[in-house]
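Hi everyone, sorry if this is the wrong subforum. Our group has a chain we'd like a structural model of before ordering constructs, and none of us has done structure prediction before. Sequence below.
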Amino acid sequence: MSGDSLIPGIPETLAKLRAAGKKMYFVTNNSTKSRAGYKQKFDSLGLDIPAEEIFSSSFAAAAYLEQTNFKETGKKVYIIGEVGICEELDLIDVPWIGGPQDSDKQPDMGPGGMLHHDKDVGAVIVGFDRNVNYYKIQSAQLCINENEGCEFIATNLDAVTHLTDAQEWAGNGSMVGAIKGCTGKEPIVVGKPSPLMIDYLANKLNLDKNRICMVGDRLDTDVLFGTDNGLKTLLVLSGVTSEEKLLSQENIITPDFYTDTINDFFMEVPAASKES
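Answer:
Right subforum, don't worry. Here is the predicted structure as tokens:
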């Protein structure tokens, strides 16, 4: 899959992997959709992917709150982000404010103006938000700086993202950076390359990390996620990373293998798959 289009041959390759008895899980740092939202996207592309095989960073944020018994605190979550985080928190009955509801709000910055924040917020989750604004930044800043014990959680630190095929766009790292800048705090990161998602998968599904191969098209998230967490890694050149970038002297992240696309798993002549 590349953006909103499907690479030719992928449905057949996934079917062959399943037929070979391989378990597959789809892990994404994009928090704008929930697992249900990604299931709809896969369906629209003609891919029959069970919802339980999808792990987004929006889900990872909710999983972290579950693991830390956040619900029992009686606190709320303030969200910088889109509907994916909201939907995942709804599924675990954790109350939230912010998110899309604050997209059109502006704080009173006239003489004596101030923004009143919710003192019951016990965590701020920062995910990718195409409608981030000063109201959201100030709300998050006040919650983290003034609410005792308020946690700062980031879905990921991706520097850039690929909203269109025309150029790179500022990623969630820019939104997290704004909150780091005004609070002086480092976030708890739940998406790739943080170990939280792979630890959750390994524990929940009884998987042996030594038998997992992380396949992805980004060095700084996908491959690093694998190398940092004891997985084999396969970089595919069908997305973000070019072979030139991989082999450049500036690159310090090395996958175990790289190839053009995952279709190469079943090439009759496997010469295109190269060890790096």
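For your construct planning: The mean pLDDT is 93. Residues 134-146 form the longest helix (13 residues).
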